[in-house]
# Entry
Amino acid sequence: MRRSLAALLCAVILLPVLARADVYESTMILVNKQNSLPSDYVPSDLSYPDVRYEEGVPESRKQMRAEAARALEDMFAAAEKEGIELLGVSGYRSYWTQHDIYQTRLQEAGEAHVSVYVAQPGKSEHQTGLAMDLGVAGCTDLTERFADTDAYRWLTEHAHEYGFIIRYPKDGVQETGYAFEPWHVRYLGAQAANVRASGLTLEAWYRRKLAGSRLTRQRRFRTGGIFG
Ligand SMILES: [Zn+2]
# Structure
């Protein structure tokens, strides 16, 4: 009796925690201005990708989730074979690191700049451990200059082969809420190729998926059953 009560208590306490972790730890998680992560969320499997970084990157910001880290290593190795030496500039950032960055940039650059370039704490993909800002020698300042490099051109052709998308494309601000960030890649895993092939931002891709599933439900309803 006591054992079954303990099991029940465990289930009641643990299930919501597990369910929550599952949602936040999906490699397909959508984090943006409308979808926030809680301040205490830290990915469970952060690790250090074995790649080159810009000099001076703090250790904590070199991290990515384990699966993304391995994919980043593969992508860097493939680029290097083509003569392109990518550099990691900024990966995982905790809620509070993002908080400090946001406040500093707000004071330095003002509201108009941060609204399209700097995510508020909880609304940054960097907190998922699935994003990395990239550079090459002579171009690690995370500006649009990166779009003129061979590295960027290579990424547009090949990043999806390693599970990454260029998350904030040119002219995507209406959808993503952020200006063109050629340096910011986001790990999605196997779906990256589909998202890229769609030509849509991640937000628009999700919206189309959602519309598709609604349509399927309506069709099922009209045809009188789930096997209709
Ligand atoms: Zn970024």
Summary: Helices lie at 2-24, 66-81, 95-109, 111-117, 150-158, 173-176, 192-198, 202-222.
